[in-house]
């Protein structure tokens, strides 16, 4: 989950693309990982969306 998001951000940056969406998605993935859900399905990001800190 996190490695894919990092790759997309890095590739988008190298191509000069707008990073707003990739950075937002990566932040949700990172929060899910920090909350202990790194091994779960990517849909666990909804927990962070439902309960913003």
Description:
There is one protein chain. It is built from 3 helices and no strands. The relative contact order is 0.17. It has 53 residues and is mainly α. It has one domain. α1 runs antiparallel to α2.
Order of helices and strands: HHH
Derived structural class = mainly alpha
Count of domain modules: 1
**Secondary structure: number of strands:** 0
Q: Termini, distance in Å? A: 21 Å
> From the structure provided, what is the oligomeric state, counting identical versus distinct chains?
single chain
Provide the residue-averaged pLDDT.
91
Summarize the structure.
By secondary structure, the chain is mainly α.
Topology of this protein?
Blueprint: H1 2-14, H2 20-34, H3 45-50
Helix pairs in contact: 1-2
Highlighted features:
single chain, mainly alpha, 53 residues
């Amino acid at each position: 989950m996190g490695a894919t998001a990092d790759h997309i951000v890095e590739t988008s940056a190298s191509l000069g693309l707008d990073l707003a969406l990739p950075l937002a998605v990566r932040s949700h993935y990172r929060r899910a990982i920090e909350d202990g859900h790194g091994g779960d399905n990517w849909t666990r990001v909804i927990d962070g969306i439902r309960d913003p800190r």
